[in-house]
Amino acid sequence: xxxxxxxxxxxxxxxxxADVLARAFQDDPLQKYTFPDEDERRRVSPAHFRAAxxxxxxxxxxxxxxxSGAIVALPPGQTEVTLxxxxxxxxxxxxxxxxxxxxxxxxxxxxxxxPMHGRHAAMPHWYVMVLGVDPEAQGTGIGQAxxxxxxxxxxxxxxPVYLETTQPSNIAFYGHMGFAVVEQFRxxxxxxxxxxxxxxxxxxxxxxxxxxxxxxxxxxxxKR
Length: 224
Fold this sequence. Notes:
It contains eight helices and seven strands; from the N terminus they run E-H-H-H-E-E-H-H-H-E-H-E-H-E-E. By secondary structure, the chain is of the alpha+beta class. A seven-stranded mixed β-sheet has the order 1-2-3-4-5-7-6, with helices on both faces. It is globular and about 45 Å long.
């Protein structure tokens, strides 16, 4: 669903988007595992998401509805978070940004779930790295609009879109958006369930205006 308030995030808008994502993920299972203490989670999560947003600015697309939602998506050829890209995009600074213990817990889950991504999205694809909507703005179509901004990039080239979630309540939403669960992985260390989703390629059908046939001309017939 198109919305005029979805726009590309600039470096100056990263702080606002990070605050939005921190609120969106305050009760997310992975975020709760990363920061078991609620107050620490609320305080440190913005720095966590700021790192993800800056990585997205370096290697992908970052869109947002100011104050309400944000999405980080990586295009084909950039979907693997390599060590070199992590260093360039600032992800290797996570231990100093959020603490070594929290970074270890988060990266442990992501590393364990990483092979699932490779198994189901080995082809060129778009990867939704992060998507979040402020709890007060959920149910207003913002999540749909942010995902649609990625579909607008993927569909013209008929590319699939891959993402993961640890939030069971997201499963129905992603199904509504055309994704299918391709695997459910349970991390043996954290006990968290991670769902992998894939949205198949979509063909963009051009809307063609029907050809109007010229009206037949009436011949003048004189009255008798």
